[in-house]
């Protein structure tokens, strides 16, 4: 690490962070097994990994696994509120540069992201770990504008963040007109963590603008069917409790979206005794919600009755300012979809006569002119990470084991420019690494049973089209 080559809240938190990392390691058997498996061969030697993923205690264990496998790593958070400052401090104290702190401004966020690319001696990264696709977006836009020789100006009505991204890229172009072209030429690929980032990748691939190989980690079964679902089942309730400590039992909770995250969110709220109502656009997911026993209706229909509203769609304008104005006094509004596009925060801020009062960081009361208020968590950004500490270690061990395997695949394999999935035998390997910790005893197929089913005794056990 170059001297002072980091920016975090407070290095003196390192010891506190280290204690938490130590406990997390015990709960992350997948990552620890990969460390043991590759302790001698260090297959990531020579890899320079730029990571943009919530700088939490669990991510610290991921980072230190990548380092244990031989990689050189630089890290930022993929969200302005999600960093656990003690985790960032511990990682820096152990020698990996981190640029992240809880409560970054958007300018600071994009400044941090730019720090990912300089590994010293003119070297850029050769691998990216991305969560939500911001680094992937930045390098692709960077190349696009370098080829054009200019960066366009933000259009009237563009999101504030769009303006900041364009300014960041304009400054980069002025300073080094080939920065991103060089970076992309040196990249072996990106592994993407979440649904929203994966959607961006497939769109780029379809448009023919994708420039590097990509691995879709999100859709490994041991990622999206575990982290998105069981992770949110834990961290959504945690975020609501820490933010407001409101009694969830008996309340009417509205969950927008019944995909993997929506299923986990609905289960969590029901588990606390809330009455849960779901909204969906997809008839299949709507039918699933109905058959799971949830009322399914529209936001407009239920907006005056709900006590808690949670968006989980990865879409935009799911709850509008006009709808928020119709909510009950002190209704709670939070989002766990990746970006702050689901709750119309700009519309709320522009609502005539509305007043914003900070109850505490990441909890704001918005008082309407008629005197009634609503409570918005984490300013419409991921509240399970902004108001709490995100998913617990055990489930993140599954996600991050997939990440480590994806990085190994990109580094040692030959992947073309496209979006790839990890093969099923590796998905099953990740699950297997987590069974002992839960005392699971797996049944082994006899040879005759395996032949009857048409699978190998050691797996893979399911065809590609199986949906779990
Ligand atoms: P998904 O695609 O499985 O689910 C999203 C669901 O929302 C779909 O069923 C879709 O039909 C529905 N939907 C879309 N527009 C809607 C609308 N206008 N009204 C109602 N429903 C609508 O995706 P997944 O995996 O559940 O992820 C959702 C979001 O959560 C993504 O942005 C993802 O990146 C993020 N995520 C957040 C995590 C966290 O820790 N907060 C963890 C994992 C994912």
UniProtKB/TrEMBL annotation:
Enzyme class comes to hydrolase
Catalysed reaction(s) here are: S-adenosyl-L-homocysteine + H2O = L-homocysteine + adenosine
Q: Where does NAD(+) bind?
A: 194-196, 228, 257-264, 280, 384, 391
Task: Please give the CDD domains that the UniProt record associates with this protein.
Answer: SAHH
Q: Where is the S-adenosyl-L-homocysteine hydrolase NAD binding domain?
A: 228-390
* Single GO biological process annotation from the record: S-adenosylmethionine cycle
* Known pathway: Amino-acid biosynthesis; L-homocysteine biosynthesis; L-homocysteine from S-adenosyl-L-homocysteine: step 1/1
Principal location: cytoplasm
State where the protein is found: Cytoplasm
A Pfam family cross-referenced in the UniProt record is: AdoHcyase_NAD
Name the SUPFAM superfamilies on file.
Formate/glycerate dehydrogenase catalytic domain-like, NAD(P)-binding Rossmann-fold domains
EC number(s): the record gives: 3.13.2.1
> Which coenzyme or cofactor does it need?
NAD(+)
The residues that hold substrate are 56, 131, 193, 223, 227
Q: Kindly list the GO molecular function terms attached to this UniProt entry.
A: adenosylhomocysteinase activity
**Which GO CC terms are listed, alphabetically?**
cytosol
Q: Give the UniProt keywords, A-Z.
A: Cytoplasm, Hydrolase, NAD, One-carbon metabolism
Q: Which InterPro entries match?
A: Adenosylhomocyst_ase-like_sf, Adenosylhomocysteinase-like, Ado_hCys_hydrolase_NAD-bd, NAD(P)-bd_dom_sf, S-Ado-L-homoCys_hydrolase_CS
For this chain's record, the cofactor binding note is:
Binds 1 NAD(+) per subunit.
Q: Which PANTHER family does UniProt cross-reference here? A: ADENOSYLHOMOCYSTEINASE
What task does this protein carry out? May play a key role in the regulation of the intracellular concentration of adenosylhomocysteine.
Instruction: State the family it belongs to.
Output: Belongs to the adenosylhomocysteinase family.
Kindly provide the name given to this protein in its UniProt entry.
Answer: Adenosylhomocysteinase
Organism in which the protein naturally occurs: Catenuloplanes indicus
Q: What gene codes for this chain?
A: ahcY
């Amino acid at each position: 690490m170059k001297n002072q080559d980091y920016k975090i809240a407070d290095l003196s938190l390192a010891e506190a962070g280290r204690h938490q990392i130590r406990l997390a390691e015990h709960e992350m058997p997948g990552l620890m097994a990969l460390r043991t498996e590759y302790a001698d061969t260090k297959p990531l030697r020579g890899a320079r990994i730029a990571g943009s993923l919530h700088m939490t205690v669990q991510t610290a264990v991921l980072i230190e696994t990548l380092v244990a496998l031989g990689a050189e790593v630089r890290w930022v958070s993929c969200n302005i509120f999600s960093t656990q400052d003690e985790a960032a401090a511990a990682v820096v104290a152990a020698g990996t540069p981190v640029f992240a702190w809880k409560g970054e401004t958007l300018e600071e966020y994009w400044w941090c992201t730019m720090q990912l690319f300089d590994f010293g001696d003119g070297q850029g990264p050769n691998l990216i770990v991305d969560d939500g696709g911001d680094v992937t977006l930045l390098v692709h836009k960077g190349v696009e504008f370098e080829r054009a020789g200019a960066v366009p100006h933000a259009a009237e009505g563009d999101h504030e963040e769009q303006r900041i991204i364009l300014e960041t890229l304009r400054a980069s172009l002025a300073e080094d007109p080939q920065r991103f072209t060089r970076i992309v030429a040196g990249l072996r690929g990106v592994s993407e963590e979440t649904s929203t980032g994966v959607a961006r990748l497939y769109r780029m691939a379809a448009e023919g603008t994708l420039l590097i190989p990509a691995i879709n980690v999100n859709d490994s079964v041991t990622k999206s069917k575990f982290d998105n679902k069981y992770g949110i089942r834990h961290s959504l309730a945690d975020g609501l409790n820490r933010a407001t400590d409101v009694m969830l039992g008996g309340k009417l909770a509205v969950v927008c979206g019944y995909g993997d995250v929506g299923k986990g969110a609905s289960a969590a709220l029901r588990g606390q005794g809330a009455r849960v109502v779901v909204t969906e656009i997809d008839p299949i997911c709507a039918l699933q919600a109905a058959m799971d026993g949830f009322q399914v209706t529209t936001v407009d229909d239920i907006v005056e009755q709900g006590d808690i509203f949670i968006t989980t769609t990865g879409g935009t304008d799911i709850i509008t300012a006009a709808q928020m104005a119709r909510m009950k006094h002190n209704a709670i509004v939070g989002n766990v979809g990746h970006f702050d596009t689901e709750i119309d925060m700009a519309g709320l801020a522009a609502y005539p006569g509305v007043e914003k009062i900070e109850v505490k960081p990441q909890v704001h009361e918005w008082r309407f002119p008629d005197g009634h208020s609503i409570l918005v968590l984490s300013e419409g950004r991921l509240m399970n990470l902004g108001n709490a500490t995100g998913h617990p270690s055990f489930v993140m061990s599954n996600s991050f084991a997939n990440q480590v395997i994806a990085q190994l695949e990109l580094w040692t394999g030959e992947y073309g420019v496209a979006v790839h999935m990890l093969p099923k035998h590796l998905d099953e390997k990740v699950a297997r690494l987590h069974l002992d910790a839960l005392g699971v005893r797996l049944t082994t197929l006899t040879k005759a049973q395996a032949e009857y089913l048409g699978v190998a005794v050691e797996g893979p056990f399911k065809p590609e089209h199986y949906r779990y």
